[in-house]
Design goal:
Layout: H1 11-55, E1 67-70, H2 71-81, E2 107-111, E3 116-122, E4 145-148, E5 159-164
Antiparallel strand pairs: 1-2, 2-3, 3-5, 4-5
């Protein structure tokens, strides 16, 4: 009579382990996604506050005049006209989920011949608390904080952060 040395795992044991690993992977994605969105929103707010303090000191008026500009294009013009600030603005801040060197997805709006301006971006966290309840669009001179619009933006929510003088 032959005896077989039974070593290894059965198919059932392997399937159970794979199912458990799958559940853990799904649970981690579900729980980490909101944290990642909040982290990217924190970066957006920080970027806008830093560059906003600089640009809104006197509301930079581009050569094209009043209007709305992507920050990548605006800073390129600004550095060309003011080379003494090139080191300070060496790397253009960009939206962490969509931005690149050509389009930052951070927008600057200037009105009244450069008297009022606002820098804004679309947030990812839909649960972000609104701190500017009277505003439904980017508002030069409207203060800094979170506002809500009627339509979703490029990051999929109707929440925006603006930095304005």
């Amino acid at each position: 009579m032959k005896r077989y040395n039974k070593s290894g795992f059965t198919l059932i044991e392997l399937l159970v382990v794979i199912a458990i690993i799958g559940l853990l992977a799904v649970a981690s994605v579900v729980y980490l996604t909101p944290a990642l969105k909040k982290g990217r929103d924190a970066k957006r707010k920080n970027d806008l506050a830093q560059i906003g303090r600089f640009l809104s000191l006197s509301c930079y008026l581009p050569d094209a005049g009043d209007g709305e500009y992507d920050l990548a294009n605006l800073l390129q013009e600004f550095k060309t006209k003011n080379p003494q600030y090139a080191n300070f603005l060496a790397k253009t801040p960009v939206d962490p989920s969509k931005g690149d060197d050509d389009q930052s997805y951070y927008y600057y709006q200037v009105i009244d011949g450069g008297k009022k301006c606002v820098l804004y971006a679309n947030l990812e966290n839909q649960a972000e608390a609104v701190t500017l309840p009277g505003i439904t669009s980017p508002t030069p001179g409207g203060g800094s904080g979170v506002y809500e619009t009627e339509a979703a933006g490029w990051n999929g929510t109707d929440k925006y952060f603006q930095f304005s003088n």
